[in-house]
Amino acid sequence: MSYLLIKIIHLCAAAFFIGGVFFEVMIVSYASRQLPDTARQQLGAALGMRARKVMHWVVLALYGAGLGLAWNYRASLAHPFASSFSFLLSLKIAFALSILGHFILVVWLLRTGRATPRRSRLIHYSVLTQMVVILVLAKSMAFAW
């Protein structure tokens, strides 16, 4: 698979993932407060079921393509403090792994019945914040290269 195709898959998956989390955190969570409790629960259940089906594939594409891209820069990653680019890329990967950890945590919380609205909200805000940091790092890498 060509580098350009891997890059396009990575960028599209990142846009879908960030857009989904942004929509959930900044729009749905506030709009659903105006709904009665039963409607809010129905909306949350419907969105949750659909998001779990779609987001697993998006995350798989995002991280799979990310691994493919990182492979091209393995020499830079071997020396993360050798240049601005390798340092920024290493930071970006660290945040991406943190987000993956959050994603795994959500799956575990849902499967064990330990998910609460407060935990979900905190995880979503954390993931959204880290995604913004990754976007800034990715743009900064273009200037550091």
Q: What tags apply to this protein structure?
A:
145 residues; mainly alpha; 0% strand; elongated; transmembrane
How would you describe the overall organization of this protein?
By secondary structure, this protein is mostly helical. The protein has one domain. Helix content is 87%, strand content 0%. The chain contains five helices and no strands. The protein has helices at 3-31, 37-72, 74-77, 84-112, 117-144. The chain starts with a helix and ends with a helix. The mean pLDDT is 93. InterPro entries: DUF474. This is Integral membrane protein.
What is the arithmetic mean of pLDDT?
A: 93
Q: What is the number of independent domains?
A: 1
Counting helices, strands and paired strands, the structural category is mainly alpha
General shape: elongated
Low-confidence stretches: none
Oligomeric nature of the chains: single chain
Number of E strands: 0
Q: What distance separates the N and C termini?
A: 23 Å
Portion in helices: over 70%
Strand/helix succession: HHHHH
Q: In angstroms, what is the radius of gyration?
A: 17 Å
The proportion of residues in beta strands is: under 5%
Largest β-sheet summary: none
User: Number of DSSP helices?
Assistant: 5
Keywords: Membrane, Transmembrane, Transmembrane helix
Protein name: Integral membrane protein
InterPro entries: DUF474 (IPR007418)
